[in-house]
Amino acid sequence: MAESSERVRNTLVVRKSCFGLPTGCPQCLSAYIYLKLAQVPFDVDFHLNYPDSDNIPYFEAGDYVAYNNETGGLIESLKKDVVDIDAGLSSVTDWIPMKVMLTTWLADALAFELWVGGDSSSAYNIYYSGLPWPIGKLLFWKQAYLLKLQYGVNKENAEVKEEEIYSRANSAYDALSTFLGEQNYFFENRPSSLDAIFLAHALITLQALPEASVLRTKLLEHDNLVRYLQKCKTELIDSDPFPTSDLPFHRDASSSASRGHSNWSKIFSGPWFEA
């Protein structure tokens, strides 16, 4: 960044808070936890416009703005331009396999539960509950349809696909549990971006998904992961009260509002609507 973080106001812009969390959006929460682990002071604002925008979350500091839809996502931009808590870790043998499990197997399983395999109320609450009913429902149906296409889910193979997704997620939990052991963090007993990604995933899994959730049940079978989550939640979230989305919403990025990509203009087109 061109300006020192000591002289500017750092702001993380996220989707609304819900389920007792600073934000219910997985990408937003992982960025929030990353900044907390990095001990970067920042304020939180909530974005109401364009809930389907791939810009969110984004980070502002003076004239600097980093968006989630930039290469590698927001955390990679924060590592490059703000603070890199992963320094020296990317060359560790297990780093890449761990990152793949977190960003594919577990991310896919959570998205599947939120949008396709569950009762859908959690996803609706996170992304669209602040919108008028017709718009919110249409945007939800569209996203659910796109995810079914992404995972190749249809009526004929739904059970097989679901079993594959949950099997990979359970394998990931097993591997993460073994790797963590009784350490405070996954790598070299120090926080990293992979801790932030897992903690966001686990918090939403345990607090936003219903008790009958398959993914939630599988995570709860790993006692050390749950203890690790509870410890970090106490230190990073419970000890520092966060603002609620009842406060005024952040409307646009200060320097690049035009970059807010939304699909609202296509809301009444496409096979997801015809269905």
Question: Topology of this protein?
Answer:
Elements: E1 10-14, H1 26-37, E2 43-47, E3 58-61, E4 64-67, H2 73-81, H3 95-117, H4 121-127, H5 133-151, H6 158-180, H7 193-208, H8 214-220, H9 223-238, E5 249-250, H10 271-274
Parallel strand pairs: 1-2, 2-5
Antiparallel strand pairs: 1-3, 3-4
Helix pairs in contact: 1-7, 3-5, 3-6, 3-7, 6-8
Question: Which features characterize this protein?
Answer:
single chain, 275 residues, alpha/beta, five-stranded mixed β-sheet, 5 strands, 49% helix, disordered C terminus
What does this structure look like?
49% of the residues lie in helices and 7% in strands. The chain has ten helices and five strands; from the N terminus they run βαβββααααααααβα. The protein has helices at 26-37, 73-81, 95-117, 121-127, 133-151, 158-180, 193-208, 214-220, 223-238, 271-274, and strands at residues 10-14, 43-47, 58-61, 64-67, 249-250. It has a five-stranded mixed β-sheet, covered by helices on one side. β1 (10-14), α1 and β2 (43-47) form a beta-alpha-beta unit. It starts with 9 loop residues before the first strand and ends with a helix. 36% of the residues are buried.
